[in-house]
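Exam revision sheet. Question 4 asks you to relate a sequence to its structure. Input first:
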Amino acid sequence: MNFAPLPSVDAAAVPADGLVLDVREADEWAAGHVEGALHVPMSDFVARFGEVTEAVADGRKAFVMCRVGGRSAQVTQYLVRQGIDAVNVDGGMLAWDGAGRPMVADNGAAAFVL
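Answer key, structure tokens:
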């Protein structure tokens, strides 16, 4: 059985207006995240799937992100199977931070990757 390669993109290549889907847990999100990202933790993903389908209803591509890329790879695979245009962000938030991309924290403090 052949499996298609998982679509992925470098953190530096995510467009500034791209729909970032962050699948990390609440404590990770609070420490630092992409401003404007949709936060749906992997642990809540099935229950909150409707929020994701609404966000991509206009045909937007979802840039799926976690800390390093493992959880987001699983979610990306699931979304692609559902016919949703989704790509895994290689290296996750660590790569995003490493590329100097902007982040915000919930409490107004300096954002960091937990």
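Marking note for examiners. Helices lie at 26-31, 49-55, 70-81, 92-98.
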